[in-house]
Design brief:
Elements: H1 2-9, H2 18-27, H3 36-50, E1 58-59, E2 66-67, H4 72-82, E3 86-90, E4 97-102, H5 103-110, E5 127-130, H6 135-145, E6 149-153, E7 159-164, H7 165-173, E8 189-193, E9 196-200, H8 205-212, H9 224-232, E10 241-244, E11 247-254, E12 259-266
Parallel strand pairs: 2-3, 5-6
Antiparallel strand pairs: 1-7, 3-4, 6-7, 8-9, 9-12, 10-11, 11-12
């Protein structure tokens, strides 16, 4: 896309980065031919061209899944509690993903006899993709293969998380990025006031420990969003306040699958 705009404006010095291009558009938009939402959309498209799946996928520790041997009652409860429209199904362990189950298939089942329900008969194929895949390539794969969810694999072939077409589209429309992190995509912790910090849910626990001099750890998850979700046993809603050891976490942004942004402050020792 940068190449396209370089040719469009016949620039002698090509844009070196997406942020440079967006700054140029804003500074040359005095006649307001482009609305701010349009500029943000262009920025979102640029992000999709530059980001990888690992940057946005839901970590495996936060994945909602169904076991192949779960009964229909438990499966329906899982859908009702998670509010997902599709959920991965696994076999021996969560490294053995068989495919996905769709909520609309369950609706059809509940309208007919469920006495002979066999979960395996209702599993749909799912994409398996590497963490390194670019988001624009993934979006094209979703469209051409008519799929909406993919399981993300690490360099060793293990399941590192999942990503949906909605996750990619959110990057374009800008619903995930928080105003405290607009300076750089690499920033996951930002001080926003006296003793107040904005922390992304994808912040590695080790990174949080280094920044705040804590010793938080969890045997099954790697991120702070995963740590809090595991601690609670569910994904907290917007505005929820959670006290975990030395810190209070206020959920500033979250969706049905994960914590996106938190406001963090240290709790004074009594």
């Amino acid at each position: 896309m940068r190449t396209y705009f370089n040719k469009l404006w016949r620039l002698n010095q090509p844009f070196q980065s997406a942020s440079e291009m967006i700054d140029y558009i804003r500074s040359h938009n005095s006649n307001q031919l482009l609305t701010e939402s349009s500029i943000n959309m262009i920025a979102g498209v640029m992000q999709v061209e530059q980001k990888h799946v690992r940057d946005i996928c839901v970590p495996s520790g936060q994945m909602v899944t169904i076991h192949i041997n779960d009964n229909l009652t438990d499966i329906i409860q899982t859908f009702n509690e998670s509010h997902h429209s599709r959920i991965p199904v696994y076999d021996d362990n969560k490294e053995s993903i068989l495919g996905i189950l769709l909520a609309k298939d369950l609706l059809k089942l509940t309208m007919s006899s469920t006495d002979s329900f066999v979960l395996r008969d209702h599993i749909h194929p799912i994409l398996f993709i590497p963490e390194s895949k670019k988001l624009n390539t993934l979006l094209r794969d979703f469209q051409t293969k008519h799929m909406h969810m993919a399981i993300v694999l690490d360099e060793y072939g293990g399941v590192s998380g999942l990503v949906t077409i909605e996750d990619v589209i959110e990057q374009i429309v800008g619903e995930i990025d928080d105003e405290h992190f607009q300076e750089t995509d690499q920033l996951t912790i930002a001080q926003i006031g006296d003793g107040l910090y904005a922390v992304k849910g994808i912040t590695e626990i080790d990174e949080f420990n280094t920044y705040f001099k804590t010793d938080y750890k969890h045997p099954e998850v790697d991120t702070m969003g995963g740590l809090l979700t595991s601690h609670l046993g569910y994904i907290p809603k917007l505005g929820a306040s959670i006290v975990y050891r030395q810190h209070q976490f206020e959920i500033k942004q979250a969706d049905q699958r994960r914590i996106i942004t938190m406001i963090v402050r240290k709790i004074d020792s009594v």
